[in-house]
Specification:
heterodimer, A: mainly beta, six-stranded mixed beta sheet, 12 strands, globular, B: mainly beta, seven-stranded mixed beta sheet
Chain lengths: 113, 113
C-alpha cells in the first residue's frame, strides 16, 4: 500500500537551534513530495515541493527539505528555529500516475524561547 | 483575491440531519478537493474534481456526495449525518491534478450529536 509516515508526533526544539521534521514514504514509481504547515484554526499552507532535479529544495520561511531516494525520505529542515515556527507540519506524497495526495498524520513542532 | 473560501465556519447537526458545505475559489483553478481532518489521522481525501464536470471518489467517500457546480464552486453534502462525521472539513484547489501545490480554505468544524 502507498503511504507516508511521520514517525514523530511532536518535535521540541529551542529557538535558534536547527530543526528537523522527518518524513518517509512508500510509493511505486517516482513520487512528487510536498510539505505543508498548519497554524491553529487555519487551513494548510504550502511550504515546498520536490518534483525532480536537485535533491535539496528550498521553500517559504527559510525551510528546506532533502529528497533521499535510497532512504525514501523527505525530511524538513531549518537551520535556526523561531518561536513563530511552532505549528503542525504535514508531509504529503503524490504517487506517480495518480491525481491524489496522500498525507502523513502530522508532526507538531514546538519551539521554546 | 480571496483564495479558497468555505461556508459555514462552524456547524452543529443532529444525527440524521442533512447539510451542504460550500466551497469557492477565485484563482481559476481546474482541480478541487474535499478533505476531512481527524486527530492522529492527518487529512483524508473524501472526493475530488480534476476539472469542471468531473468528480471522483477519494479514500473515505461513504456518506458524502459532491457537486462541481461550475469551475469556481465545489460543494459537499451530507445526506444523513452521523456522529462519525464529526470532523474538520477542508476544501482545496490547484491549477491541475499533477505536481501543482494545493491551496486550502480555512475549514468547517462540524459536530454531529
Amino acid at each position: 500500500a502507498q503511504s507516508v509516515a511521520q514517525p514523530e508526533d511532536q518535535v521540541n526544539v529551542a529557538e535558534g537551534n536547527p530543526l528537523t521534521v522527518k518524513c518517509t514514504y512508500s510509493v511505486s514509481g517516482n513520487p512528487y513530495l510536498f510539505w505543508y504547515v498548519q497554524y491553529p484554526n487555519r487551513g494548510l499552507q504550502f511550504l515546498l515541493k520536490y518534483i525532480t532535479g536537485d535533491n535539496l529544495v528550498k521553500g517559504s520561511y527559510g525551510f528546506e527539505a532533502e529528497f533521499n531516494k535510497s532512504q525514501t525520505s523527505f525530511h524538513l529542515k531549518k537551520p535556526s528555529a523561531l518561536v513563530s515556527d511552532s505549528a503542525l507540519y504535514f508531509c504529503a506524497v503524490r504517487p506517480y500516475n495518480t491525481d491524489k495526495l496522500i498525507f502523513g498524520t502530522g508532526t507538531r513542532l514546538q519551539v521554546f524561547p | 483575491n480571496a483564495g479558497v473560501t468555505q461556508t459555514p465556519k462552524f456547524q452543529v447537526l443532529k444525527t440524521g440531519q442533512s447539510m451542504t458545505l460550500q466551497c469557492a475559489q477565485d484563482m481559476n483553478h481546474n482541480s478541487m478537493y474535499w478533505y476531512r481532518q481527524d486527530p492522529g489521522m492527518g487529512l483524508r481525501l473524501i472526493y475530488y474534481s480534476a476539472s469542471e464536470g468531473t468528480t471522483d471518489k477519494g479514500e473515505v467517500p461513504n456518506g458524502y456526495n459532491v457537486s462541481r457546480l461550475n469551475k469556481r464552486e465545489f460543494s459537499l453534502r451530507l445526506e444523513s449525518a452521523a456522529p462519525s462525521q464529526t470532523s474538520v472539513y477542508f476544501c482545496a484547489s490547484s491549477v491541475g491534478p499533477s505536481y501543482n501545490e494545493q491551496f486550502f480554505g480555512p475549514g468547517t468544524r462540524l459536530t454531529v450529536l
